[in-house]
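User: quick one
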Amino acid sequence: MKILITGASGQLGTELCHLLDANGIVYKATDTSQLDITDKEQVVSFFNQEKPEVVYDCAAFTAVDAAEEEPGRTVNQTVNVQGTKNLAHATESIGATLVYISTDYVFDGTNLAEYLEDDTPKPKNEYGRAKLTGERAVQETVSKHYIIRTSWVFGEYGKNFVYTMQDLAKTHHELSVVNDQVGRPTWTKTLAEFMMYCVNERVAYGLYQLSNEGSCSWYEFACEILKNQDVKVNAVDSTQFPQKAYRPKHSVMNLDKAKATGFKIISWQDALHAFQRQIK
Ligand SMILES: NC(=O)c1ccc[n+]([C@@H]2O[C@H](COP(=O)([O-])OP(=O)(O)OC[C@H]3O[C@@H](n4cnc5c(N)ncnc54)[C@H](OP(=O)(O)O)[C@@H]3O)[C@@H](O)[C@H]2O)c1
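Assistant: Done. Structure below.
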């Protein structure tokens, strides 16, 4: 099976490369300099030449606040919408399978229950709107696709909340963290494993949601990250930390469909502690 990874130097892409290496699976990893997904001609000629059978698309513009104003808004549209469309058309033209990663930000977070895959999306920020347009392009264009929505991603190979909290704890005795936004943290390793599982186990094509089990507020997440450290964590309201982009208050996605595939999902606490042991 010929495998292509886009955005391979990002947080998820790097994790996926390590996972495939560990499983002895050969793949072609590309970053922006090798395959810019916004360059339609380059994408078409790359696909015609390489003829990948599976495309793990880890490329995205992920600066959620920057996406609210120029030039971020344009880059967000170009990468997350046009880039995704380019990949979708190129994938379909050679009959390959596309694995596309989406986000809980396709929801507005006003539902206090868990969001199901079929619930009507209602993104309230530019990034969420662009990723939803990407989802729809994949659904409409690619016969063989997996769309995997995820949330609150952390892992060894990128900037994320866990590293931010650990770094702040080195210089602060007290931290304030918002307690009125609830979601599901996701370890890149769990997500990469599910991506590989879908392809290798020939799971039914379609839309899935994948995070670690359980949910928490950012405050609760921070308490768990720093639980063995001498730092006081204070719970505050999100009005204390105004951000450009709207953040959902309760973006907890239901995981039953992913679990029904037979994939075992560990809790976010177990994932976090395994990750912390790994980076020690
Ligand atoms: N991080 C989260 O909390 C989160 C939450 C929900 C969903 N997601 C989704 O998860 C996926 C992976 O995110 P991540 O955390 O791994 O993001 P990331 O670390 O920002 O990685 C994204 C990668 O995409 C590459 N990229 C950007 N523009 C590109 C282009 N035009 N052509 C090719 N590659 C391009 C970036 O390369 P450069 O560095 O060269 O720009 C980067 O390596 C994305 O689809 C994202 O939307 C992430």
